[in-house]
Amino acid sequence: MSAAVRPVSALLLGLLWASSASASEFSRLRIPPHEQVARVARFISHRCDWASMATISSHEQVAGQPFSNAFSVSDGPLGSSSGVPYMYLTRMEVSVQDLEVNPSASLSMSLAQTDYCRQHRFDPQSPLCARVILSGSVMQVNGTEAEFAKKSLFSRHPEMINWPTDHNWFFSKFNITQVWVLDYFGGVKIVTPGEYFQASPYSKYL
Ligand SMILES: *[C@@H]1O[C@H](CO)[C@@H](O)[C@H](O)[C@H]1NC(C)=O
Ligand SMILES: *[C@@H]1O[C@H](CO)[C@@H](O)[C@H](O)[C@H]1NC(C)=O
């Protein structure tokens, strides 16, 4: 944010939001308008640092059943969103073992994972606490895309740099085939991967 814009947004803040949050916090959490569904989806994908990933279980206790688990994700260093959720995985991990058998998965991210819903007092299940559900599959990435995945993940999850090398970590991406968005009343909205990747995740002040 430029120095010239700051006093203006601080003024707006005073009018719109009678709390003690700073202007930078306000701009950081500015979500695109709810009717711009693809932008909302991109905003959520970029702001969330982790996702719940559901796989089809390959483990005998629950074989064939959905299995949901938390993963660190990043679609780019902050301010450099690609829209592609990248993950750092090891075949020692229970859900990754499912993906080896069937790479189909669903990834969900919610602004309940950020300060946004708490600050607006939106319950995580309220349609106003915006969330995105991605359908698709998980695939390993190589070469320059793996380099981008590394930069994306390590900048936002610095602890990964020191994860044990004997786990044979590799970089993966979520290959999106369908985007489902819940960001307002009236039910889920569908965004195609094309619309999703064309949309800008950024609000004016980011
Ligand atoms: C990346 O390399 C792995 C291992 O060689 C391979 O299985 C996979 O298909 C490659 N992925 C892409 C997108 O080329
Ligand atoms: C992503 O998934 C779609 C649908 O299964 C498939 O057609 C496409 O080839 C996949 N993308 C890549 C890069 O493999």
Question: Can you tag this structure with a few keywords?
Answer:
binds 2-acetamido-2-deoxy-beta-D-glucopyranose, 206 residues, alpha+beta, 7-stranded antiparallel beta sheet
- Give the integer mean of the pLDDT values: 88
Structural class: alpha+beta
Low-pLDDT runs of 5+ residues are 1-27
Distance between the termini: 7 Å
Per DSSP, the total helix count is: 7
User: Helix content range of the residues, please?
Assistant: 25-40%
Strand content: 15-25%
Query: SSE order in H/E notation?
Result: HHHEEEHEHEHEEH
What oligomerization state is this entry in?
A: single chain
Radius of gyration: 18 Å
What hetero molecules are in the model? 2-acetamido-2-deoxy-beta-D-glucopyranose
Number of strands: 7
Shape: globular
Summarize the biggest pleated sheet: 7 strands, antiparallel
